[in-house]
Amino acid sequence: MNIVLVGAGPRNLSLLERLLAHAQRTDEETTITLFDPFPIGGRVWNPDQDPTFLMNTVTQQLTLFTDPSVAKSATGVFGPTFYEWAITVGPEFIQSHNFKNAAIFLDEIARINPNRFTSRALFGVYAQWFYENLGNYRPKNVQFAYLRKAVIDVQQTAPHMFKVLLEDGSTVDAEQVVMALGNADEANTNEEQGFADFTAQHTGLTYVPAGHPAEARLDTVPDNEPVILRGLGLNFFDYIAKLTVGRGGHFARDRAGELYYVPSGKEPKMIAGSRKGLPMHARGLNQKKDAESHRPIFFTAGNIDRFARENNGKVTYDFFFNLIEKEMNYKHYQNVISDFGLTWPFNAAEFLEALRHSANLNATAREWGVPDEYIMNWDRILNPLGESAEAVDYNEFMVKYLTWDINDALKGNVDAPYAGAFDMLRDVRPVIRHYLDAG
């Protein structure tokens, strides 16, 4: 059998390990080929990219291996998490290879912390080590290889046969093809194309189109000139980093321990905004060890299945969101009453039990005497400025809002009343996968 894996990022690398595990059970001759125009790790985790760009998951929560907690039909390879690899074999692996950013990687590892964030490039190095390590577990009946080429088309030629067309015009025949394409390019929207056209028609203007931040031509943005950053999502932080510390600026601490930024003088004058006008909520300081996660009470596969059975196999959006809202509200109130600095006139266990059986957790919290400032106000969460946005001193509001958000996040992604509830959404993704798998 000939298998083609399009993309050499984490998904296909994990799939490669599973294929090798299942191949132990058969004598069938199998060839597996990974294709990617980028190094092992793929576009997002390219080890050759600028290490300024950070991951959005802390180091101890990252791995390409399964562990005994994962049910598997074929036993595979166990190995170190990203953090464990970094503090053990990582430096030796880097020194034995010719990585473009080797000195920076070794510097990163010397300062690595299980609860902080490291570069996407360094995770790409871990991905390459993982790929090379799999060679030690290859069954005799399997050959696998990685080719740094782009796949531009896949055509089905028979019920179980595909022709894979490569960028150089050559083709590969395969019985199975898996496409894990990751972050693919998109054509400009009409609005974006309008920006590009306007820029081309006027001298002195620069337009950097939407795309992968590590490949954006930010060197074309002039020093000390105004630049608009459109959007405040994850890529916004990449651009901010590249246009500040990436241009020689750095951070220091004052005598009170507060961080402040020391500019290099090469930064542009950045004007940032989005439709919502606010950045993403601050990620809670990590308190979760390894695979530790929130165990849902309301938003469970069982509750979704039960509703589907009673409604001809369908789940309404209102029911689906109501379960998520109740789950987040419960976690919020659990963290509010866990604050040892507060004294409540009720038994905590009885209060939580009442919430578990409540149709409206906010109403129940009010009945038990929880003050309004601790009530989970969804209107305020979704629209912090409220309806009186034009009457608000925006600078004053923004400083207060960010201060509140950061102080809450510093309480941790387990204990914080808000950041703890928001972080829970990452833990219930298996329920969302179940919902999709069940159709």
Domain module count: 3
Q: Trace the largest sheet across and list its strands.
A: 3-2-1-7
Whole-Å distance between the termini?
31 Å
- What would you call the structural class? alpha/beta
CATH topology of the largest domain: FAD/NAD(P)-binding domain
Per CATH, the architecture of the largest domain is: 3-Layer(bba) Sandwich
Give the helices and strands as they follow along the chain.
Answer: EHEHHHHEEEEEHEHEEEHHHHHHHH
Poorly predicted runs: none
Walk me through this protein's architecture.
The protein has helices at 10-23, 82-87, 90-95, 102-110, 120-134, 190-201, 234-243, 301-310, 317-337, 348-356, 361-367, 378-382, 394-409, 419-427, 429-437, and strands spanning 2-6, 30-35, 142-147, 151-158, 161-166, 171-174, 176-179, 226-230, 250-253, 259-262, 269-273. It is built from 15 helices and eleven strands. It folds into three domains: 2-179, FAD/NAD(P)-binding domain; 199-273, no CATH class; 301-437, no CATH class. Helix 1 (10-23) runs parallel beside helix 5 (120-134). A four-stranded parallel sheet has the order 3-2-1-7, with helices on one face.
Main traits of this protein?
single chain, 439 residues, alpha/beta, FAD/NAD(P)-binding domain, 3 domains, four-stranded parallel β-sheet
Give the topology:
Elements: E1 2-6, H1 10-23, E2 30-35, H2 82-87, H3 90-95, H4 102-110, H5 120-134, E3 142-147, E4 151-158, E5 161-166, E6 171-174, E7 176-179, H6 190-201, E8 226-230, H7 234-243, E9 250-253, E10 259-262, E11 269-273, H8 301-310, H9 317-337, H10 348-356, H11 361-367, H12 378-382, H13 394-409, H14 419-427, H15 429-437
Helix pairs in contact: 1-5, 9-10, 9-14
